[in-house]
Every structure is written in structure tokens, then in C-alpha cells.
Amino acid sequence: MTSDPLAPLDLAFWNMESDRHPMHLGALGVFATHSPTAGAHAADLLAARAAAVPGLRMRIRDVWQPLSFGGATREADPDFDPLNHVRLHAPTADFHAAAGRLMERPLERGRPPWEAHVLPGEDGVSFAVLFKFHHALADGLRALKLAAGVLDPVDLPERGPRPVEPPRTLLSDVRRLPALLPGLVRGALSDAGRALDIGASLARSTFGMRPSSALTSAPSGTRRTAGVVLDIDDVHRVRKSVGGTVNDVLIAVVAGALRRWLDERGDGSEGVAPRALIPVSRRRPRTAQPQGNRLSGYLIRLPVDDPDPLRRLDTVRTAMVRNKDAGPDRGAGAVALLADHVPALGHRLGGPLVGQAARLWFDILVTSVPLPGLGLRLGGHDLTEVYPLAPLAPGQSLAVAISTYRGHVHYGLVADAQAVPDLDVFARAVSEEVQSLLTACDA
């Protein structure tokens, strides 16, 4: 397999990592079983199948050649051994407690940056698998594809072939240059204007209402995870009652849960309106784009200080409509797009500084990870719950990832364990907020 240069945003993720802030994302899947040996069998299956998934063999290697000085590539690891990546653990009574400890540990950078941890349940009727993928290896969509490669096969609808581009040569590029030049100039001017818009929006976003100190902290390097399961029918009831989208409701639930959590822990929600980054995928899977993260984002103020749940939802809906009207290429949430205009060496030298600056950009990450509607299995055992887990930015205490799977919404929560020892309180507040919205809609 040939080497594949890291896209600029992947290179940024690779270089902003530190021991206390690993840049891997995760997913905790819970499987139902009736066999106490199912976890061990699942670990054997994962190791055997991983060898046949080309993407799982890819390591990231730094490049110091003149034309790509400071860059990095994905390339096949000649010493790849699945047993270095798949680990079977002792039985546990708390999958999330175990996942939190495992999410603390950075992935080994000299090997393909992924791991699968199998956690047998003490109850004997379930086991869990924690997948970890470095953000430079895969975004949420690609991580899902890689994980699906080691689960039981499913019948997916066939897609049409990708368009094939004719081979390009230096002579053909020179001949096309006069026709391309006006477009290149317009593109450069458009990029400059977009960069100015993003910078101005980012500056404006730093003013106004304050975030809570509970959402920012000195990094401890510790992690805690929790999960919440909601009935998708409840979310649709709210959406149909007041309008907007399912995503609007799910984001508004986060705002209401933050209010409940802050008030209960004594920090108070008055005057609190944290900036939430809502990632937006710009990947176009049917084109011949290179692999890599293609992300932008929307930035909105969460109306945590508003006591009315329906007004909170209306504020979120209005902010999301405004972001969508502007598009994902402009606004403060689109800062990730600027990575394309930074040379490789700039990412290498400035990565740690960019990571530290995340707290100036947003206060909390709220991301949605799509999952297939089909039921997934491992070794014949049904996947019953799946919690996406997002990386925690330096200086931030809490990240929220959301997936919908087979009639249920799963919130995956990741927090700095020292800054947020009461993550279970926030998880409970998520469930309570949905009930509050339902009650308000029925009133």
C-alpha cells in the first residue's frame, strides 16, 4: 500500500497532541450475550479480522523531505501485529469507569494509532468494546467504517463507482493554466475574504456573556466518561410540537442540562452562555478526494442562563438557522478550514500553541456522529448501546458526542476527571431536561 500524505487538518491534530491531551476519539459499544466467554471470543475475532482491514495497518510517519518538510504520511506498517492493538481486560461492573481510564492513555505513535479494548461484564450477560482512533487517522465517519470492518458483516446497499479522472501530466497542466488562471485568482481572493470573515467572527465571539468556570480547567490528564440513553420518539415529540430539527432539540437538551448541573453543584447559571462548537462534515464520499478530515463547524451561544426550556430551544434553533444560512465556510466555527493554508512546518511548530488556543475559540464541543440504521453484531452478539466519545480540548472540562442508533439517542460524555468529578450529575440532568421539554410541550 502506497503512502498517503496527511491532509492539513489531520496534520494539525497530529501535532497538537500532548500526553495530557491525547487527540483520539472513541466509541464504547455494549453487546448483549448469554455466555461468560463471549468477551474473550470477541477479542479473538477482532484481532483476526483487523489483519484484513487495510486502514488498520496504517501508521503515521513524519516526513522531512524538502518539498514536504515537517509533514507526515500514512503508510502501511511492515511490522503490523493486531495483538498490539486488541486487548482483553478483566471483567468489570462499570463499562464507563473502565473506558474513562483507558481514554486517558495516548495511543502509541510509532504504531498504527488505534486500539480496541474488550471489557467483559461481571454480570455475564454483556460485554463492551472501546474503540480508540487517533483523529489524524480517522474522523468520526472513517472511524465508523474502520470499526465496521471488524464487526460481523452486514449487507449494505451498493454504491455506484467513483468518477475516474483522466491521468494528468506536467504538459497537460501547463496547457490548462490559461483557462484555470481566472478561477485560481478568484479562488485566492475568495479564500482571503473567507479568512477575514472567520477571523472577525472569532473576535466577536470572544465578547459577550461568560462561560462557566466549570467548563474550563487546568488540565489534569485524567478522564471520566458517562453515557445517557434517550428514546428517539420523545425527541420527535418535542420537534413536532415546536418545530426545528432533531439536532436542534439534542443541542437544546445540552443547554438545559448544563443549567441544571451548574445550579445543582452551586456554580450558578446566571449570565452563563458558553460557546458550543458544532462540527460540520465537508466530506464528499462519492468524489475522488484524498482521505482525511474535512471539517468545518458552527459556533453558537448556548442559552444556559434562560430558565424557560422552550425559549432555550427556540434560541438554539434560531442560531442554527443563522449558521446554516451563512454556510459552513464562514463564521467563527469555520476556523478548522484555515488549516489548509498553513504549511506543514507551521503545523509542526505551531500545533501545541493551536491546541492551547482552543479555549479562546469555543467552550464546549457538541458533536453528532452518524450511525447506520442496520443492527450491528460482533460474534453473533447484538450491539445494544453505542456511546461516541470525543477528544477533550486543552483547558476544557467537558465534551459531548451524540449518536442515534436503532430508536435511541446515545449521549457520550467525556470530562476531565478532576474538574468534573460529578459527571454522573450532568448525565442525569440530560435525562431530566428531555422530560422538562416534554412537559413544557404538553402544557
Automatic annotation (TrEMBL):
GO terms for molecular function: diacylglycerol O-acyltransferase activity. It is an enzyme of class 2 (transferase). Pfam families: WS_DGAT_C (PF06974), WS_DGAT_cat (PF03007). GO terms for biological process: biological process involved in interaction with host; glycerol metabolic process; response to hypoxia; response to nitric oxide; triglyceride biosynthetic process. One of its GO terms (cellular component) is plasma membrane. It catalyses: an acyl-CoA + a 1,2-diacyl-sn-glycerol = a triacyl-sn-glycerol + CoA. Pathway: Glycerolipid metabolism; triacylglycerol biosynthesis; Lipid metabolism. Residues 6-249 form the O-acyltransferase WSD1-like N-terminal domain. Residues 292-436 form the O-acyltransferase WSD1 C-terminal domain. Its EC number is 2.3.1.20. InterPro entries: Acyl_transf_WS/DGAT, O-acyltransferase_WSD1-like, O-acyltransferase_WSD1_C, O-acyltransferase_WSD1_N. The keyword Nucleotide-binding does not apply. The keyword Ligase does not apply. Keywords: Acyltransferase, Glycerol metabolism, Lipid biosynthesis, Lipid metabolism, Transferase. PANTHER family: O-ACYLTRANSFERASE (WSD1-LIKE) FAMILY PROTEIN, WAX ESTER SYNTHASE_DIACYLGLYCEROL ACYLTRANSFERASE 4-RELATED. NCBIfam families: acyl_WS_DGAT. This is Diacylglycerol O-acyltransferase.
